[in-house]
Amino acid sequence: MKHLLSTRDLTPGDAIRILDTAEEMAAVNDREVRKLPALRGRTVVNLFFEDSTRTRISFEAAAKRLSADVINFAAKGSSVSKGESLKDTAQTLEAIGADAVVIRHSAAGAPHRLAMTDWINAAVVNAGDGTHEHPTQALLDAFTLRRHLSKVAGTPSTGADLAGAHVVIVGDILHSRVARSNVWLLTTLGARVTLVAPPTLLPFGVEQWPCAVSYDLDEALADAPDAVMMLRVQAERMNASYFPSTAEYSRLWGLGDERFARFSEPELKDTVILHPGPMVRGLEISSVAADSDRSQVLRQVANGVSVRMAVLYLLMSAKESTR
Amino acid sequence: MASAEADGEATRTAARAHAPSGRVVLSAADIDRALTRIAHEILEANKGPEDIVLLGIPRRGYPLAVRLARKLAAADPTVVAEQIVGQLDITMFRDDLSRQPTRSPSPTRLPSQGIDNKVVVLVDDVLYSGRTIRAALDALVDLGRPRIVRLAVLVDRGHRELPIRADHVGKNLPTSAAEKVRVRLTEIDGEGGDPEFTEDHVAIEAPRDEDSTEGEIQ
User: Fold this and answer.
1) Which of B97, B104, B107 sits opposite A38 (nearest CB)?
2) Antiparallel, parallel or unpaired: β B52-56 and B85-87
3) Cys bridge to B56: A10, A42, B6, B62, which one at CB 3.0-4.6 A?
4) Is a pLDDT exceeding 90 seen at residue B187?
5) What average pLDDT does this structure show over B41-49?
6) Domain boundary assignment for chain B
């Protein structure tokens, strides 16, 4: 594995290896000295052409805990605003000596372009490209879910896949790279995925994805899923009206107080709530649900550092020729 | 386990018949006797079982540490084997990470009493260049501050590259650097491990091209 561009091309073995490595990284994050010397002397560049808080900070923390040097690059305030191309930016990073480039870009395929051309030799990690993929988010979701399931079952999580698990992903599937990465990864790991959204927020060709589609959240909850993943309504990507009003969206597809009350039913007693963040409280999720003990949101953030440490370690530690 | 009465030559011949390749230098009974002696040496050097923690280095150091802990418990009834043994992963602390294919880390598990102010005995199967032990010492520092750190190995094959020596050695094995020392233990190589495994042994293999380096450490 030289790059991490999408979850679609990960084999079950690759995915479990990343999750198992993340499990060991998580143990380091619980220690007094939260630092490993594995990537000492290596340089990680965070190349962010789009706004991000948790993903950038998470990658930065991950790289630093592995003793790598981190250079943060935000497109705002850089030469990109003067019209520099991706190629020139990338070659500048290569000249500086980047060993890995973590890239977030509004254009789908930008990380792929960086990885497949001869512009740079560094390992490329996709940190979200347009509405295409966000593989590390899906990996941390799978990691969080795997830990939860093994805790409920009382079995060790290391080495396990997600066979038999059922995940419902609710909301703006159309604009969500998180949903796409999760559909590929969770099904690769053996889980069953149901997408729930208004018909206008489902992408063209969704019937060919390896998942079920529903328009009714209550119906999906009646199926007693192991996890419900709420997605943010991405207002910044919406240049047309996809639903009549936010109040209607919230009532039909949001996890409001009334719907969250159903989580106390016996068949939903082990169901957890996932959210990739940032949350829009009151729209797709109510504060009661977001702050409840079912919500794994903060655990997802913590696990994100472990998963990203695992990814950086697995991509960067090998010698160049075997990477 | 081979019969303890079997004379050395017979045991060795029998073991050689099982081993697919290489010269068997320690049979299952030899390994067991060496571990029993090391266990008593550890107790003697420490003047009793107080504060002893055994940390095995994956993969084959850990089962050896578990076996040593049981022998300590057998020799001294105040010792509870499970409470003094742990596993110390050194993958992230290796100095050759960038020169090797990617290695997946193993878990690090410390006994619940921790390692602060303890007498930590690092346990590994083969002592060779000493680089694994250097990495283990670095890993240990990040976990706590032991009072004393000692080293117990099943086999010392020489060719040290760092100023490191073992306190307790099962067998000194003069080798050429081109040879490989292969350790096979039931816990790792039994069921589902090495298909040719029959019983515990240590063997020296003549140099071969592109051979597996498993069971050998740097």
Assistant:
1) B97
2) parallel
3) B62
4) yes
5) 96
6) 29-177
How many angstroms separate the CA of residue A38 from the nearest CA in chain B?
Answer: 5
Q: How far apart are CA A25 and CA B107, in angstroms?
A: 9
* Chain A residues touching B91 at Cβ < 8 A: 38
Specify the pTM.
Answer: 0.88
pLDDT tens sequence across A222-277:
999 999 999 998 877 776 678 888 889 999 999 999 999 999 999 999 999 999 98
The verdict on B105 touching A (C-beta cutoff 8 Å) is yes
Query: For residue B56, how far is the Cα from the chain centroid?
Result: 7
Cβ within 8 Å, pair A21-B104 = yes
CB distance from B92 to chain A under 8 Å?
A: yes
pLDDT tens, residue by residue, B101-136: 888 999 999 999 999 999 999 999 999 999 999 999
What's the start-to-end Cα distance of chain B, in Å?
29
Please list every residue in chain A whose beta carbon sits closer than 8 Å to the beta carbon of residue B92: 36-38, 66, 313
- What's the rounded Cα separation, in Å, for the pair A66 and B105? 13
Q: Using the beta-carbon criterion (under 8 Å), do B107 and A21 form an inter-chain contact?
A: no
Please provide the CATH number assigned to the domain covering B29-177: 3.40.50.2020
Q: Yes or no: say if A142 and A15 are a contact pair by the CB < 8 Å rule.
A: yes
